[in-house]
Amino acid sequence: MHIDVLIAFVVSSLALTLSPGPDILYVISQSFIRGKKAAIITSIGLTTGLLFHTFFVVVGLTLLVKENENIFMVMKIVGAAYFIYLAIMVFLKRNNKKIFKSNQNENIDFFKKGLLMNLLNPKVSLFFIALFPGFIFHDNLDPEIQFLILGLIFWLQANMIFVGVSIFSNKINNMISDDNFLIRVSYVIEICVYIFIAIWILK
Fold it and tell me: What is the pLDDT along the chain (203 residues), one digit of tens a residue?
């Protein structure tokens, strides 16, 4: 086993997750708008999607879809349409400040939104296909098993970072006096994140 390769993968994963991409910006906006608990539950939904994408890579579904242009295009259109729909809904409800109070239905809604955001982005699987082969860490283990382990490592660190960002963002929100301004900015960020992901999926 090449421990140095695993360490390099962990460092790379942390850097990728911490980079100011749409997922982390979305988690921050959820923390500002709907509170810490909502952001954490959404984060768990987002990272659960990573487990599905890892499974798709391991069983070869991602390569199959990638090679079939029609299926891949349909998946991209459906995913982009979903994100445009989310952007429109946020715009229509932008004046509604809602403090999240934990109940089972809302827990499920936030989790489902995070999960669908990740699952309906087929480029996540393609990203894993590009990333994982560069970090083969064992000479005797099947590549599929190693991909599964790498996917679990990526999932674990993403969970830790997103939950940490949710808590930290909420603390910042509590320290800022102009709460309404911050919420308005967060709504703009959320809409921009949805539109950016939709465009990125279709590219």
Answer: 778 888 999 998 898 888 877 788 888 888 888 888 989 999 999 999 999 999 988 887 666 666 777 777 787 788 788 888 888 887 887 665 554 455 566 778 889 989 988 888 877 887 888 888 888 888 888 888 889 999 999 999 999 999 999 999 888 877 775 566 666 777 787 788 788 878 877 77
How long, in residues, is the chain? 203
Residue 25 near residue 166, CB atoms below 8 Å: no
CA–CA dist 94, 184 (Å, integer): 8
Whether 187 contacts 32, CB under 8 Å:
no
pTM over 0.70: yes
* Alpha-carbon distances, residue 167 vs 24, 161, 171, 189, 194 (angstroms): 13, 10, 6, 18, 22
Can you list the pairs that 136-143 forms with residues at least 24 positions away whose Cβ atoms lie under 8 Å? 136/5, 137/1, 137/2, 137/3, 137/5, 137/6, 137/9, 138/1, 138/2
Distances (CA, A) of 103 to 72, 100, 107, 112: 37, 9, 6, 14
192, 194, 200, 203 alpha-carbon torsion, rounded to 10°: -110
